[in-house]
TrEMBL record:
It comes from Roseovarius ramblicola. This is Serine protease. Coiled coil: none annotated. The keyword Cytoplasm does not apply. PROSITE patterns: TRYPSIN_DOM, TRYPSIN_HIS. Residues 1-23 form the signal peptide. GO terms for molecular function: hydrolase activity. Residues 17-273 form the Peptidase S1 domain. It comes from the Bacteria. InterPro entries: Glutamyl_endopeptidase (IPR050966), Peptidase_S1_PA (IPR009003), Peptidase_S1_PA_chymotrypsin (IPR043504), Peptidase_S1B (IPR008256), Trypsin_dom (IPR001254), TRYPSIN_HIS (IPR018114). Its EC number is 3.4.21.-.
Amino acid sequence: MSGARPVLALLAALCLWAGGAVAQSSGLTRLTDRDDLFGWEAVGRVDIGRTGFCTGVLIAPDQVLTAAHCVFDRAGRPVSADTIRFRAGLRDGEVIAEAGVAGYVAAEGYDPRGGMSAANIRSDAALLRLATPVNSAVAAPFAIHDRPCDGAQVSVVSYGRDRDSAPSWQRRCNMLWRAEGIMAFDCDVIFGSSGAPVLAAHGVRPRILSLVSGGSGAEGERRAYGMDLADLVTRLKHDLRAATAGQATANPGFKRARAGENRRGTGAKFARP
């Protein structure tokens, strides 16, 4: 779209924050009661260590999609899988379901030391395998939207700083542009929103169009950035199957972690500009 290429060229200089960078504003609905949460149970908080968290979403009973930068520490090392816990539908201490993580993969091409570059935003996704599947009757996984439409109206459900005890739903925001594997939205995101699903209408239930990778508040305008997701998720599922089968790879973009590995990890550390 017009103006997309200059924005991509300057993306790393836009004061991006992996997990959002703009303050909470009007238009967010706090999903406090069980009835409010109906249909959104598959969105949950991904707790990493004692202090870090991101947002994640079930795409299968035992698979949670989140941002890749959430599973690396400040030094760029993959965190130990046994420090990660997914808490579906968490609200004020109550959960719909929760489970530990047996292992995960980050997208090929994601560089945990590469900062918030355009290349990293395109690859900023990770797939967690839960140690215990979540019953689909309790929290129905979301499907991936395979036909993004420029200018689409979208919604976002996320956790965030100062709103981490319950999910917030932004019913309506917009895709501003889509180019070279990156999408921009005017959605309200903040630290902790990393990995939140950006959902677009599809029949009777929305599908996941993208994930929140980062955002900016340049010139007072809210901006959130995400990636084209359909092909990326297909590759992540393939890599997760390979990891489960114990098939190691020399590809440095393929990150695998299982319970007990890399205990030096200190939890999710949001990337800084």
